[in-house]
Design brief:
By secondary structure, the chain is mostly helical. It has 16 helices and two strands. It starts with a helix and ends with a helix.
């Protein structure tokens, strides 16, 4: 029989119970993906209508229906409304969706393959390495592969950078946090110096283009850019999702993953190629946009857990939502002017990164 003290004493929560409570609060993967998909569609329709020529969402949808030959809904009543949508707005929103999805998914894959929550293409220098390749093509006017020249150069430089980061951050079979961050700092410094030299050697037009790359922008979006980025992003997302189950097993440890039949080195090499492909396709037409690949996967992981079969597609959708919203803010915050998109994402992503560093240090008890 319990005493009065025993009846009134508060029950202490155990670590297992806390973990169960967290699992109970997590959102189911299909629900989260569905919500993000619906939010992306609604946000894209709204974003396409916002600007100097405002077009209501129902007229945006009506314009799409008429272009598809369905003849449903009202067409834009504003002067040049259709032209504003199809020549400027729709390609810009589509490119924002593709670039955001590429950055979000590449961040999720990079954190999974490195086994490190601080990994992100721009933070550890991969985006800047890809930007050097793109800037080299712009400066010297190279056209070896036609419209694919910039993407190819960005891919090669991004791949080399990723391999360097991977090789230098590995020690004793694991990825070290300090080495990863220091490698990123070194690569960013070298890339910034190379970009400075290229800007010094570039003409006026090339100089403006490289400056746009440094700051990040979707101002140059057009249907040709969308047609180039779309297949690369689709291929990268498909391969990344195909690696989801093996990335889950890799999270249990290399030895455990090998016992469960995972070819760890092949998985790592495939993931590195995917990261380089997604990052280069984003950088080639949008420039360096930081912190999307860091912030979005963390928010998804907090909401739905670490399973990559949910994390990768949800990070892609979340990245698209974030970048479409950020682009709307960048082009409407100041009338008749446009803020650099990369500056805007860094402005909000930087404080989140500081919080993440402190959180990682507290949970690991130091940086060893």
């Amino acid at each position: 029989m319990k005493t009065a003290t025993e009846k009134t004493a508060p029950e202490k929560a155990t670590p297992g119970k806390k973990g169960a409570d967290r699992e109970h609060r997590r959102v189911r993967g299909p629900v989260l993906i569905g919500v993000l998909g619906a939010a992306l569609v609604l946000l894209a329709l709204a974003a396409a209508g916002i600007g100097q020529v405002n077009v209501p969402p129902d007229q945006v949808l009506g314009s799409i229906m008429h272009r598809l030959g369905l003849g449903i809904g009202p067409r834009p009543t504003a002067a040049q409304g259709d032209n504003a949508l199809w020549i400027v707005r729709f390609p810009r929103v589509a490119l924002a969706v593709l670039v955001g999805a590429a950055l979000g998914a590449s961040g999720a894959v990079m954190q999974g393959v490195f086994g490190n929550p601080l990994a992100e293409p721009a933070v550890i220098g991969v985006s800047w390495g890809a930007a050097v390749g793109a800037a080299t093509v712009i400066t010297f006017g190279l056209t070896l592969f036609g419209n694919w020249t910039i993407v190819t150069a960005a891919f090669v430089c991004g791949l080399v950078t990723t391999l360097i980061v991977y090789a230098m951050s590995r020690a004793g079979g694991r990825t070290e946090v300090v080495t990863l961050l220091l490698t990123g700092i070194a690569i960013n410094a070298v890339a910034s110096a190379l970009l400075g030299l290229l800007m010094f050697a570039a003409g006026n037009d090339a100089l403006r283009a490289i400056t746009t790359w440094n700051l990040g922008s979707l101002a140059g979006a057009n249907w040709d850019a969308v047609a180039t980025v779309a297949p690369l992003t689709a291929a990268g997302l498909a391969v990344a999702f195909g690696c989801a189950r093996r990335l889950d097993l890799l999270a249990l440890g290399e030895r455990t993953a090998r016992h469960l039949g995972v070819d760890v080195e092949r998985l790592r090499f495939t993931a590195i190629l995917v990261i380089a492909l997604l990052t280069s396709s984003a950088v080639a037409f949008a420039g360096v946009i930081s912190f999307v690949g860091l912030v979005v996967p963390h928010l998804i992981r907090m909401a739905a857990g670490p399973g990559h079969r949910t994390l990768i597609p949800a990070s892609a959708l979340g990245g698209a939502v974030v970048l479409v919203a950020a682009d709307v803010a960048a082009r409407t915050a100041i009338p008749y002017q446009e803020l650099p998109l990369g500056v805007l994402t860094a402005l909000f992503g930087g404080p989140f990164f500081f919080w993440l560093l402190r959180r990682a240090r507290r949970s690991s008890g130091g940086w060893a």
